[in-house]
């Protein structure tokens, strides 16, 4: 008899737990199944950006047609840009921002850049690691500075620069 009472108590507790789980969204503000609301930052400025990510995902999974995607993307992009402009610091307002920009410019100046592939990660690269073009620099034969982008031969000595 006591085993039957224990089984009945456990069954009742499980039923109450399942009922509470099912009814929780009705009484408390919880996201519905399968849909998550975009989290907002402290000032709520990233809601449009989160919505853009959500519609990208919905389009990729086939839940959103191309026409609806185009319309929603335009609206959310306008909203995101307006939010970013509203919260962007005024020009010259942040010395830290200017200092950071100077560091980035100095880093980019140290790195060679391929006219086709962009900045290269190797600071001492003579050739582009992707396409093989000669990067502006000095001729390895005569040492003369070569500034022509995509040059294949040195203008001074005729040495072959690119593969």
Oligomer: single chain
Number of helices: 4
What Rg do the Cα atoms give?
Answer: 30 Å
Mean pLDDT: 78
Shape: elongated
- Strands ordered across the widest β-sheet: 1-2
**Structural class of the helix and strand makeup?**
mainly alpha
- Sheet with the most strands? 2 strands, antiparallel
Instruction: Give the ordered list of helices and strands.
Output: HHHHEEEE
Q: Mind explaining what this structure looks like?
A:
- Helices cover 48% and strands 5% of the residues.
- It is mainly α and 163 residues long.
- It has a domain at 1-30.
- A two-stranded antiparallel sheet has the order 1-2. Strands 3-4 form a two-stranded antiparallel ribbon.
- α2 (47-60) runs antiparallel to α3 (66-87).
- The protein is elongated.
Please give a handful of descriptors for the protein shown.
163 residues; mainly alpha; two-stranded antiparallel ribbon; two-stranded antiparallel sheet; 4 helices
Give the helix/strand layout:
Blueprint: H1 2-27, H2 47-60, H3 66-87, H4 95-110, E1 113-114, E2 118-119, E3 137-138, E4 145-146
Antiparallel strand pairs: 1-2, 3-4
Helix pairs in contact: 2-3
């Amino acid at each position: 008899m006591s085993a039957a009472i224990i089984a009945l108590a456990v069954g009742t507790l499980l039923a109450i737990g399942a009922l509470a789980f099912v009814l929780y969204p009705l009484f408390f503000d919880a996201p519905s199944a399968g849909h998550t609301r975009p989290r907002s930052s402290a000032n709520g400025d990233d809601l449009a950006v989160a919505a853009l990510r959500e519609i990208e995902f919905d389009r990729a999974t086939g839940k959103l047609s191309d026409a609806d995607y185009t319309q929603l993307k335009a609206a959310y992009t306008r909203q995101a840009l307006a939010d970013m402009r509203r919260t962007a610091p005024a020009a010259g307002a942040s010395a830290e921002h200017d200092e950071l920009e100077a560091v980035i410019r100095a880093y980019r100046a140290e790195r060679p850049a391929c006219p086709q592939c962009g900045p290269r990660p190797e600071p001492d690269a003579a050739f582009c690691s992707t396409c093989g073009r000669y990067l502006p620099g000095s001729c390895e034969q005569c040492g003369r500075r070569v500034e022509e982008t995509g040059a294949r031969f040195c203008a001074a000595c005729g040495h072959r620069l690119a593969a």
